[in-house]
Amino acid sequence: MFLLFLLSILSGEDRSSLIAFHQSFVTLITVLAILVDIHFQTQKSSPVETHPAMILPLIMAAVVYSIVLARINVQPRSSEYLTLCRLAYLGSGILTCDLLVGLLMSPLWWFMVNLCTILIVDILRRWHQPIYQFVCQSRDLLKKKFEAVRLAASKAFSLTRDTEEQQNGGNRLPV
Question: Which residues are within 8 A (CB) of 18 and not within 5 positions of it... i.e. 6 or more apart?
Answer without folding.
Answer: 8, 72, 86, 89
